[in-house]
Amino acid sequence: MLEKVFKLKENNTNLHTELLAGLTTFMTMAYIIVLNPELIKGIGEALPGKGMPVDGVMIATILSAATATLLMGFLANYPFALAPGMGLSAYFTYSVVLQMGYSWQVALGAVFISGVVFFILTLARIREMIIDSVPHAIRQAITAGIGLFIALIGLKNAGIIVAGGESTFIALGDLSKGSTLLAMIGLLITGVLVALKVKGGILIGIILTSLIGVLPFFNITQAPSGVIAMPDWSEFGKVFMKPDIMGALNIGFLNIIFSFLFVAMFDTAGTLIGISEKAGFMQNGRLERATPALLSDAAGVIIGAGFGAPPVTTYVESAVGVAYGGRTGLTAVTVAVLFLLSLFFTPLIRVVPQAATAPALVVVGSMMVVNITKIDWDDFTEALPAFMAIIIMPITFSIANGIAVAYILYPLLRLFTGGGRSVPILAYILCILFILKFLYVGV
Question: Which is higher by pLDDT, 135 or 54?
Answer without folding.
Answer: 54
